[in-house]
Design a protein that fits this description.
alpha+beta, 4-stranded antiparallel sheet, 3-stranded antiparallel sheet, 1 helix, 26% helix, 26% strand
Length: 208
């Protein structure tokens, strides 16, 4: 007489087992995909914030070395900052000449790369620092400037991306003895086209 405990699995039992295994595998896949997407979004957010902070740090450093009198305050607020930095032009070890006058280096500009000066194909969404023939990329992914009449207020018809707020991308605004700098960038988070934004604003007082 055969032992009943040694019998194999029936076809029904095999099918049920496979169905359970498929469901568990599906749940694990969805969980893994969700965790992966969350990680990609988090990494994109960190990268966007890091890029914006790095760009802002450069702008702050440049403004701290700039001569306030050389800044194009008459054309501001706006998205182009022109200035000259204190520099030891005569090589005497100081940025002050023999007549105790502040020595200034060449004209510098921080602005959108509208003319694609570095030839990388990016223009309105790229922020560059231009000094003579040197072009340095500060940030990519700049928001479009929605402030058509440059009044600093979101007016009817200006909310192009429909997010309910005024986006300017890069903006320089004199305030008292200093300058308010605004940077707004975005980065694509995943293949579904979702984007993450990063906003920074700093008040800087030039030392010269």
């Amino acid at each position: 007489m055969k032992n009943a405990n040694n019998r194999g699995m029936t076809l029904l039992e095999v099918m049920v087992s496979m169905a359970i295994l498929a469901m568990v595998s599906g749940v694990l896949f969805l969980l893994s995909d969700s965790i992966g997407r969350a990680a990609r979004v988090q990494n994109a957010q960190i990268a966007a914030q890091d890029d914006t902070r790095t760009a802002m740090a450069v702008i702050v450093r440049e403004l701290l070395s700039a001569s306030m009198a050389s800044i194009n305050t008459a054309q501001l607020p706006g998205d182009v900052l022109t200035y000259r930095k204190a520099m030891d032009v005569d090589g005497n070890g100081s940025a002050v000449d023999a007549g105790v006058r502040l020595e200034l280096g060449p004209v510098c500009q921080i602005r959108r790369d509208l003319n694609d000066l570095n030839g990388d194909g990016l223009t309105r969404t790229q922020l560059v620092l231009v000094q003579g023939n040197t072009v340095r990329v500060l940030a990519n992914g700049l928001f479009a400037n929605e402030d058509a009449n440059q009044n600093g207020v979101l007016n009817a018809g200006e909310d192009a991306n429909g997010n309910g707020r005024l986006d300017q991308g890069v903006w320089f605004r004199p305030r008292g003895s200093g300058m308010v700098v605004t940077l707004q960038t975005e980065r694509r988070a995943d293949i579904r086209g979702r984007t993450l934004r990063s906003d920074l604003e700093e008040f800087v007082v030039p030392r010269n």
